[in-house]
Amino acid sequence: MYKHSDYSITQILHIFVNVYSYRPPSWYNDSKCVVYLSKLMELLSICPSCTGKSDVKVQRRLGAYLMYKTICTLCKKERTWSNSEEHRGIPLINLILSAGILFSGSLATKFLRALSMINVSMFGGNTYLAYQKAFLHPVSNFHRLNLIHAIVG
């Protein structure tokens, strides 16, 4: 089974441009969905061990990435829940969304504005540009060079 830690950031991004021929990891193929925060709080506020009430606190919120810590008021069990894997501190959901915007040819400002208009938690334009510069453009350039070398020989 593939784990997110088996891949470097560059390999993760190469999945989007089909440079590698291996099977993408399960987190890449996993369907993603938008969930109302109130419905998520309903789920997290019930302890899975004893069905008691749990206190829910935001641990980390970064763009589309959410991490919550829950503590059951009855059995005192603690758990941490997040909506995405992280790789070296980078939430993969944010990286996947950034890559999807760039490699689909969408305009980031319109995409981000549309999500903002319907109150979907998302990173801003500066974060998108930072991901683009640090991760997406190097992979895109690598892919272009490979194509040029294949054509020119």
List the helices and strands and how they pair.
Layout: H1 9-16, H2 26-29, H3 37-44, E1 54-62, E2 65-72, E3 78-82, E4 86-87, E5 90-91, H4 92-104, H5 108-117, H6 125-152
Antiparallel strand pairs: 1-2, 2-3, 4-5
Poorly predicted ranges (pLDDT <50, ≥5 residues)? 1-5
Biggest sheet layout: 3 strands, antiparallel
Q: Give the strand order, joined by hyphens, for the main sheet.
A: 1-2-3
Morphology: elongated
Gap from first CA to last CA: 37 Å
CA-atom Rg in angstroms = 19 Å
Count of discrete alpha- or pi-helical segments spanning 4 or more residues: 6
The string of secondary-structure elements, in order, is HHHEEEEEHHH
Brief digest:
The protein is α+β, with helices and mostly antiparallel strands and 153 residues long. It is built from 6 helices and 5 strands; from the N terminus they run H-H-H-E-E-E-E-E-H-H-H.
